[in-house]
Amino acid sequence: MLWHKNISNKINSISLISDGKYIFIKCKNENYLFNREGNLSWNTTKISYVSSNGSYVFSVDYNNKTALKVYNISNEKLLWSYVLGNNEYTVFANTTWVINWYDIDSIKTSSDDKYIIVIYDIISGEEPEILPSSSGILVFDNKGKLLWENHTYSGNVITAFSMTPDAKYIVIGTGSPPLSSAYGGKVSAKVLLFDNKGSLLWRYEENYIAGKVKLVYITPDGKYILAWYNNGDIFIFNNKGDILWHYKFRELTNGILYEGLINDVYMNPDGKYVVIKLWDGINYFYTNIGNTEEDKNTIDLYIIYAILLIICLVFVGLIIKNKLK
């Protein structure tokens, strides 16, 4: 054992940053950043997120405005900041009414820390039902330049996110916010794939009541995207938006048909295997998608070769015919 630390707060997550150079611990009340030697770095109240490669620390200030602040992890120097928007609320008769509040849901970075992706919600409502009403995604370079952004419409929020390690592809899932019955009707739950310039490459939509995408995952090479909907639908797409594999989970219990009783879904990096975690076990699938696409490409090549062969034979036949005249 290299070292041991007692943490008095409830630990929510632990991340090894930059191959174990830093250990980032998120707790209920405050966060901790240790270096490899076990020394505590930083003022724990400042740290909200740490970049993948261990270059930056992110802090979020919530006052009259929501501001993202980016620091150098080594010398704690503030490098740049960005204001997402003004926060507006009022208190009347001991009840808080939120008109507009920008809440950062997560911050992700590319593996080399060149790209910084911020997912946020715009929250509104009356206490205790202060809920997300819409969402947005912001993509920066590491100098603080906003490269592109995208926003959902009212009543539709970002519910899932994934990207390739180089941030070449970014995929988000959307759907209804919590207590979506307040909005009524069916919700368009989307899967959207963007490139690193912010261009929307394709989208896929499923419409049903309180619909949302619970999870998206894109393989490291950007070839395949898995999307899990909360009604039990699981799709695998290629990066052109074609559906390569689809599974609908249903379970009949005591004569009642249940949909979507899934705890989690996993896909391996080449997209060939999917594991569905259920409340009482797992389902394991071989999707065959890589082989299917390879077979399709092989068939396409055979067709091209056959057409070229026919053209050559026709051409040779014409030459022979002309010589016999």
Overview of the molecule:
There is one protein chain. With 325 residues, this protein is mostly beta strands. The protein has 3 domains: 47 residues, no CATH class; 226 residues, 7 Propeller (Methylamine Dehydrogenase, Chain H); 36 residues. Helix content is 11%, strand content 56%. The protein is globular and about 100 Å long.
Overall structural domain count: 3
Residue-averaged pLDDT: 83
User: Level of helix content?
Assistant: 10-25%
At CATH level 3, the topology of the largest domain is Methylamine Dehydrogenase, Chain H
- Low-pLDDT stretches are none
Order of helices and strands: EEEEEEEEEEEEEEEEEEEEEEEEEEH
**Biggest sheet details:** 5 strands, antiparallel
Q: What is the CATH C-level name of the largest domain?
A: Mainly Beta
- Taking the alpha carbons of the first and last residues, their distance comes to 92 Å
Structural class: mainly beta
Task: Please identify which CATH superfamily of the largest domain we are dealing with.
Answer: YVTN repeat-like/Quinoprotein amine dehydrogenase
Rg of Cα set: 25 Å
From the 3D coordinates, which CATH architecture of the largest domain would you assign? 7 Propeller
Proportion of β residues?
Answer: over 45%
Shape: globular
Helical stretch tally? 1
Strand order of the largest sheet: 9-10-11-12-13
Number of strands: 26
Layout of strands and helices, then pairs:
Blueprint: E1 11-17, E2 22-27, E3 31-35, E4 40-41, E5 49-50, E6 56-62, E7 65-72, E8 78-86, E9 88-92, E10 95-109, E11 115-126, E12 129-141, E13 146-151, E14 157-163, E15 169-175, E16 186-195, E17 200-209, E18 213-218, E19 224-229, E20 233-238, E21 243-248, E22 250-253, E23 256-259, E24 262-267, E25 273-278, E26 281-286, H1 289-324
Antiparallel strand pairs: 1-2, 2-3, 3-4, 5-6, 6-7, 7-8, 9-10, 10-11, 11-12, 12-13, 14-15, 15-16, 16-17, 18-19, 19-20, 20-21, 22-23, 24-25, 25-26
